[in-house]
Amino acid sequence: MESFPSMSTGRILSGDAFPLTRNPNPATESERVALMANPVFGKVFTDHMARATWEGGSWGDRGIVPMAPIPMHPGAAVLHYAQQVFEGLKAYRHPDGTVHLFRPTANAERMIDSAYRLAMPPLSVDDFLASAAALVQADAAWVPQQEGGALYLRPFLMATETSLLVQPSDTYDLVVTASPVGAYIQAAGGVSIWVSRGYHRANLGGTGEAKTAGNYAASMLPQHEAKENGCGQVLFLDAKEETYVEEFGGMNLMVVFGDGSIATPRLSGTILPGITRDSILHLLGEAGRPVRERDISLDEIREGVASGAITELFACGTAAVVTPVAELKSDDFTLQVGDGRPGPVATWVKKELTDIQFGLAEDPHGWMVRVI
Q: What pLDDT band is residue 3 in, cutting at 50, 70 and 90?
């Protein structure tokens, strides 16, 4: 497919606010090539990380520093009360060699919302963008060139005050790490999903719409249950009635009906507002497909899949992008979705989105932000 070099013209996002202190012992070229050959998601890290510190009412000590363990007192508040929020976004190498972030401002704004819910000082959009740009610029050699590869960035804020008092910390650290990645889920034909009963990811009034560590900790046991039942992911129901589907352990859900319409669970305060989810809704709407954000019951899905009224289910998120669901299982049912293979809508929307991300299609929305 033709590339779109015009996409890489224009302003390059500055990382000047985060000055670079070079790693004196970076990975050699041969070590880096070996590490990047087939990286397990989130297991390989680059030579540097971004750092900043909140103290005395403002952020300071911004910089790109060598990747190293973080010294921390055993009494640090984050270790006891999980006052922490994080984000995830990717940098993509385009055919002309330039490197772009996908919708980083949306990540920055969501991190502000998450920080507010955890009573943490927000990191400004400018600092978020500069830290990401500076880290990618410092570790540009780690941005994969192979098809489907990207550099995954993990910004996180954590409470660092040495205190066992149950109250917001008075000091915080920002850290941003980078990892070269391939596919998050190695399942070309779709995944089997375990529908969790009795365990819930989030409650009304809780932290479900924030991207914080505790939500993922709550998903670990049901995720283990899913694995024991031969499934790759878990689907959570609402905690109040255990009737409506909400989201997967780390991804949003899309339902495709036989009439061509699409539905996704509405953002009720217990569901993370996914940036990939939002992007897919835009693409589907522009393609003329009716899209609704609404409550979707498990019974509706079971009946629709069994009758053929529902033709596809797929998960979406930054790490996996789009993952078709081949099968739904729980302790009292097993249902194949469609013919068990990726459906046309999931296949189409994944290609539409990834072509924009990798610079293989025009970007009419201005989603891609150049950093190199």
A: very low
CB neighbour list of residue 92: distance below 8 Å, 6 or more residues apart:
99, 100, 101, 102, 143, 150, 151, 357, 358, 359, 368
pTM metric for this prediction: 0.95
In this structure, are residues 94 and 204 in contact, taking their beta carbons and an 8 Å threshold?
no
- Give the Cα separation of 211 and 115 in Å (integer): 9
**Would you give the end-to-end CA distance of the chain in angstroms?**
22
Contact 190, 341 (CB under 8 A): yes
CA distances in angstroms from 359 to 69, 92, 96, 125, 161, listed in the order given: 35, 8, 9, 24, 43
Alpha helices in the chain (DSSP H): 29-36, 77-81, 104-117, 125-138, 213-228, 275-286, 298-307, 344-357
CA distance 278 to 287: 14
Q: What is the DSSP letter of 7?
A: G
Is pLDDT of 6 > 50?
no
* Exposure of 252 in the CB half-sphere (CA atoms within 13 A): 26
